[in-house]
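Changelog entry: the MFS transporter, DHA1 family, tetracycline resistance protein record was regenerated in this release. Current contents:
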Amino acid sequence: MNRALATIFSTVVLSAIGIGLTMPIIPQLMRDVGHTSELGWRFGAFTGLYALMQFIFSPILGVLSDRYGRRPILLLSLAGAVVDYLFMAIAPSLSLLFVGRAIAGITGASMAVTSAYIADVTPEDQRSRRYGQLGACFGIGFIIGPIIGGLLGAYWVRAPFLAAAAMNALNLLLTLWLVKESHTRQDNTAPAERISFNPLSNLRWAASFKALLPLIGAYVVLVLVGEIGGTIWVLYGEDKFAWDSWTIGLSLAGFGAFHAVAQAFIAGPIAERWGERAALLIGMVSDGTAYVVLALASHGWIAFALMPLFCLGGIGAPALQSLVSGSVGPDQQGKLQGVLASSASLASVIGPVGISTIYFASRGTFPGLVWLIGASLYLLCLPVLVRKPAPAAV
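Regenerated structure tokens:
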């Protein structure tokens, strides 16, 4: 792995740690500054605001990186994150916390630029490997961050935000010193593309590529299916297996560890040996099988036994992202990755609402229903698997 990729992966780990640092303490901070013990709809709105900002701004940052380069947009985003975490550390009211959360969503949209950077510096046949490693780096950060954040938050409720600001400041310095520009506009005579603040216009742009729309649709399906675990894993463990908090924490840590290993060391070799569509198929079959077994399981140990199968399912997303990146040329990678990130954010806003509604409606009779629905959603991706690969974009 070259220095550019190693540095980018390091910055992703640091960014994820910064995000994870604040996660355990956000509810308490909201209660403190709001002077209320009942957050009600405010917590849901606070969470959804982050995803909404990513939905709007991921394509915008992607287009800006196509026009001005990846490095300056990354630096701008990291600088904004430092300011945001400092702002949230001193915010005296709930309304100002919402302002800070909106800024956090905007700066967090830089993952689209990071993905475009990887596409710039990686040969097409190795992109599944690199996107898998990118996902693993993000997962490692989310394992480390909440642990540190929980410890700091026990000392002072605003300490995790100061630590996150310091983490992003370090990230900014690393990027400034070590990350070189990966993208130069190939056709300097072409007129500059007008930047649209309407995320739907960017989706319409993606729909203009005949081979691209089914791939993006499949990507949204993978995100939606992934949201099932994130939404109901804790509830399902409590309701079905009577798990206590220690068992739930152990299951989440184990899942994160297995997932990072699968994306870092398994996704790339499988895609390179058998192709990206085969890797996608293996991922969906593994994940879908785990969902079906978990829906019918009667003992909690089965969920732990399924973790390798669950995490082998994680190889599908990097393979699919690699397939998507090969559908457009290098001058549109930023915009494309922005559309992907925006689509994922939209699914992350809508998905949990539908998933939780189905779960609470069915848990009295068959709590595993939502897992079976998730497995069946993978059938919508079959047209992508049987479709003849389009020629690589130039």
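Residues 1-181 form a domain with the Growth Hormone; Chain: A; fold (CATH 1.20.1250.20).
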